[in-house]
Every structure is written in structure tokens, then in C-alpha cells.
Automatic annotation (TrEMBL):
GO terms for biological process: D-xylose metabolic process. Belongs to the xylose isomerase family. Its EC number is 5.3.1.5. InterPro entries: Xyl_isomerase-like_sf, Xyl_isomerase-like_TIM-brl, Xylose_isom_bac, Xylose_isomerase. Mg(2+) 2 binds at E264, H267, D303, D305. Binds 2 magnesium ions per subunit. It comes from Pacificitalea manganoxidans. Residues 412-431 are annotated as: Disordered. Homotetramer. One of its GO terms (molecular function) is xylose isomerase activity. It catalyses: alpha-D-xylose = alpha-D-xylulofuranose. Transmembrane segments: none annotated. Its cofactor is Mg(2+). This is Xylose isomerase.
Length: 431
């Protein structure tokens, strides 16, 4: 054991506690017929919690961590401390990128050796721990080789390097019993059409993803393959902009039955949507897989990746997830950063505890709204007119027949209130 977290004890559910405790997250509490832990499936993000140094676009490192270093000793120490934090929080899952867990070598083979050594260590840790792997992924965006994308890069050598990297990461995810594998296309897009063959890049991206799916089946990986929609950051025109864009891409390349989505709250906002919109869209399209639960600062125009603190927003998100039947292999990953002035080890624990409580409150509110039919009853009433024989007949009719009814005076629309404010008040009663 390290002494990084000092005397911080494992956090437990105690709504009356004065110190560090869960006030709302009770893993064993049954909500909508399932244990809360099994609904929420919390995961800690290895990158923001252990690999991010506290920088922002205008300043560098503010955190001082004992595992900072570009060698394997530092990587092993990072892993030790990460698993200590998982145990303190009692989370069931964690997530990683390859570059989070190993130092970059001077060749592909050297990086792979470093990666494999840490995967061996993870395998040992998982054997003696309750924590599991929610998903793995490859970092195909930070290194300068990916400045023009990975699968969409104009250089075929980068495409090849990316394919080899994903193969290794998928192999490792499979070995560790990961529930999902995520493709995060951080630089799959372009800055200007002056130097871009958009059609060729999309075809290459489609071919790349088909190869990933083929390899998944070849090795017998039973987890989900996920794409994470990501708008405008860092690339101006992202090919994976939002749920609808990604679904169109999947359809074009015959992947809509093979790939689902990992949807992030912060990315939804950057795309000009609400989180619940993106979740509802994915649910209706049958591609809702997993989520990154964070938030943006609404006064900033970039992805600030803050821990969630807004119960109404979180409740509406879990409402859509529950309507979809809940998570299967997905879960709630905290792709969230401390603020760069939050320097202490205890801040990492406090941030996750608070976020888990917020999610628990949101889940319980969402489940109660569904049980009470609080939103679904007025929704059904609004669309009740479509249950009449005349309305149903229109859906199998033609323009001329419908127009004849209108011209004969059989139809005279009378607008009705959408009652948005009333429904917002209903939500407020639950949160």
C-alpha cells in the first residue's frame, strides 16, 4: 500500500455521517427492481484521475503526483494507487486508454512491451479485487503522428500504426474481461477542405471500423464496440459530431447492428444538444451503449469535463436510460477532471463521492417519475389523436386521399397547449 491517500478509509453509505460518506448512493438499495450498483455501473476514468496533470489551454501542470515520470516504475506506482482509489470508492469498474497506463517507447515494439507489462499487472489486480474493466480504448489523438487523424489520416503508415494499436488494445480489453471497447475519434475530421478528400477519409474510417468489428468476432470478444460522438474539439469538422451523424455513418458502412455509442454529457452540449436528447436519439435508433457522465461550464465554450452536480440534468439523463431498459454492458464512466486548483489527494475522492451521490439522486428521481407515469401519461395524451382510425389510415394512405378529406371540410386543426411549463414543474417535484 502507498501512503498517497493517507488515512482515508473506504467510503460507505451513511446518510447521517458528518464526514466523507455516501448520502444517497447505497449500492444495495433496490430501485426499479434492480440494485442501485447494477443500474449505475460506476467507472473511474484512468486518464483524468491519474494521467491528467492539471493543465488547461492557457497553463500547464498544477498537480504534483508521485507517479509523474516517463518510466515503468512510475507506471506501476500509478496502477497501485489507482487500485487503492477504486477500493476506497467501492466502484465496480474502471476505464483506460493505452497511453494512460504506459510510457511511450522509442518504437511501436517498445511501447507494446510497456503496455503488456501493465496489462499483466492489471490482470493480477483484477484477480484479487472486486473491480472490473468497463472498457478499454486506444489514444489515437495525443501524439503528433495523429495530428491529421488516425483512420482518416492521409498517410497510410498512420492508418497501419492505428490498426496495430487498436488490435493490441482490443486484445488487452478481451483478456481483462472488459465489457466494451470504445473508439474515441478525437482527430477524425478536418480543418479545411482545401487539403482534404472528405469522401476518401470517410471510406477509410468505415473500413477501419469494419476491420475492428471483424477482429472482435475473430477473437470471440463478447463486449460491445462503441463509438463516442465528439463535436468540434479539437478538429473543426468532426466526422463523429453527434448521435445522428454517427448513426448515419454506421448505416452507410453496414455497421448499425454491430456498433453502439458511448455518449458524453459534455460532448452533447458542444454539439448544441441536451444530454437527454442524445440519449433519447440513441435509444430510438437502438444504439445506446454506455455514457460518460460529466458536465461543461456553460460560460466556457470548450470541454471542461467537470464532475456532475446538477440533479435535474442527471435525472433526465437516467430517465432516458431507464426507458431504454437500462444498461446492458455499458455503465456510468466519470470522464471528469478535478479543477486545476484542487491539488489534494482527498479532492479526487471527494469529487467522485459527490458525483456518485448526484447520480444516485438522479436515478431515484427518474425511476419514480416512470413508476408514477408522471411524464408518460401527458405524453400519451398529447399524441392520443393518432390512435383514431382516421389518423392511422393516413399512415398507409396517399397525399390525394388525405387532401380530399381536408378539402371536404372533415379536418379543422385546433392547436392545443404543449404544457411545457407544467411538465417542467412536474420534474421539479421529483428532484
Amino acid at each position: 500500500m502507498s501512503d498517497f491517500f493517507g488515512d482515508i478509509a473506504p467510503v460507505s453509505y451513511n446518510p447521517d455521517a458528518e464526514g466523507l460518506a455516501y448520502r444517497h448512493y447505497n449500492p444495495d438499495e433496490v430501485v426499479a427492481g434492480k440494485r442501485m450498483e447494477d443500474h449505475l455501473r460506476f467507472a473511474v476514468a484512468y486518464w483524468h484521475s491519474f494521467a491528467w496533470p492539471g493543465g488547461d489551454p492557457f497553463g500547464g501542470q498544477t498537480f504534483d503526483r508521485p507517479w509523474w515520470g516517463d518510466d515503468m516504475a512510475a507506471a506501476r506506482l500509478k496502477a497501485e494507487i489507482a487500485f487503492e482509489m477504486f477500493e476506497i470508492l467501492g466502484v465496480p469498474y474502471f476505464c483506460w486508454h493505452d497511453a494512460d497506463i504506459r510510457p511511450e517507447g522509442d518504437s511501436f515494439a517498445a511501447s507494446k512491451r510497456n503496455f503488456d507489462e501493465i496489462i499483466d499487472l492489471f490482470a493480477e489486480k483484477l484477480d484479487s479485487s472486486k473491480v472490473k474493466l468497463l472498457w478499454g480504448t486506444a489514444n489515437l489523438f495525443s501524439h503528433r503522428r495523429f495530428m491529421s487523424g488516425a483512420a482518416t489520416n492521409p498517410d497510410p503508415d498512420v492508418f497501419a500504426w492505428s490498426a496495430a494499436t487498436v488490435k493490441n488494445c482490443l486484445d488487452a480489453t478481451h483478456r481483462l474481461g472488459g465489457q466494451n471497447y470504445v473508439l474515441w475519434g478525437g482527430r477524425e475530421g478536418y480543418e479545411t477542405l482545401l487539403n482534404t478528400d472528405l469522401g476518401q477519409e470517410l471510406d477509410h474510417m468505415g473500413r477501419f471500423l469494419n476491420m475492428v468489428v471483424d477482429y472482435k468476432h475473430k477473437i470471440g470478444f463478447q463486449g460491445q464496440i462503441l463509438i463516442e460522438p465528439k463535436p468540434q474539439e479539437p478538429t473543426k469538422h468532426q466526422y463523429d459530431y453527434d448521435v445522428a451523424t454517427v448513426y448515419g455513418f454506421l448505416q452507410k458502412y453496414g455497421l448499425e447492428k454491430e456498433v453502439k455509442l458511448n455518449i458524453e454529457q459534455g460532448h452533447a452540449i458542444l454539439a448544441g444538444h441536451s444530454f437527454e436528447h442524445e440519449l433519447a436519439m440513441a435509444r430510438e435508433l437502438g444504439v445506446l451503449g454506455s455514457i460518460d457522465m460529466n458536465r461543461n461550464d456553460y460560460q466556457s465554450g470548450w470541454d471542461t469535463d467537470q464532475f456532475p452536480n446538477n440533479v435535474p440534468e442527471v435525472a433526465l439523463a437516467y430517465y432516458e436510460i431507464l426507458k431504454a431498459g437500462g444498461f446492458d454492458k455499458g455503465g456510468t464512466n466519470f470522464d471528469s477532471k478535478l479543477r486545476r486548483q484542487s491539488l489534494d489527494p482527498s479532492d479526487l475522492i471527494e469529487a467522485h463521492v459527490g458525483a456518485m451521490d448526484i447520480c444516485a439522486r438522479g436515478l431515484k428521481a427518474a425511476a419514480q417519475m416512470l413508476e408514477d407515469d408522471a411524464l408518460e401519461a401527458p405524453r400519451r395524451a398529447r399524441y392520443a389523436g393518432w390512435e383514431t382510425p382516421e389518423a392511422q389510415a393516413m399512415l398507409t394512405s396517399d397525399l390525394e386521399t388525405i387532401a380530399a378529406r381536408v378539402e371536404a371540410g372533415e379536418v379543422n386543426p385546433a392547436p392545443r397547449s404543449g404544457q411545457q411549463e407544467k411538465l417542467e414543474n412536474i420534474v421539479s417535484r421529483y428532484v
